[in-house]
Design goal:
The protein is of the alpha+beta class and 129 residues long. It folds into two domains: 30 residues; 83 residues, no CATH class. The chain is built from four helices and five strands. The protein has a three-stranded antiparallel beta sheet with strand order 1-2-3. A two-stranded antiparallel ribbon has the order 4-5. The longest helix has 24 residues.
Length: 129
């Protein structure tokens, strides 16, 4: 059974409409941060340093996170934290976020961030114990 030409035309129009709606939806959820107001929380960041390493940290308020991320993160119980790590040493350092207690961390205890040098590690297993 052959399909009529108007049926194909209607199907093509519906398909194009669905694609256009999908594209508009996906475009609306794109992440577009606005860094123009970031200066306030960066300026009040607390800092800790060690020889050649400087760590700065600042917790964003609800209004600041809404401006920076375009989303009300506080409504979802999310506390955004701005973190800057400057390494002026010759060592490569790794930030290990798993060493931070996720439910309780005052800002002044966050700044050291437990930076550790990256070292080559070889695993050797021995059958004798």
């Amino acid at each position: 059974m052959k399909r009529s030409r108007p049926y194909r035309l209607v199907a093509a129009v519906i398909l194009l409409a669905v694609l256009a709606i999908t594209a508009a939806f996906l475009n609306s959820i794109r992440f577009n941060p606005d860094p123009s107001s970031d200066g306030a929380f960066i300026a009040r960041a607390q800092q800790k340093s060690a020889p050649g390493i400087k760590v700065s940290v600042s917790a964003l308020g609800a209004d600041e996170s809404r401006k920076s991320f375009g989303e009300d993160l506080a409504k979802h119980n999310i506390q955004p934290v701005w973190l800057s790590i400057e390494n002026e040493t010759n060592d490569q350092l790794a930030f290990l976020p798993t060493t931070i207690h996720l439910t309780k961390f005052p800002t002044d205890s966050m700044a050291p961030c437990r930076l550790r040098p990256i070292r080559r590690v070889t695993n050797s297993f021995s059958s004798a114990r």
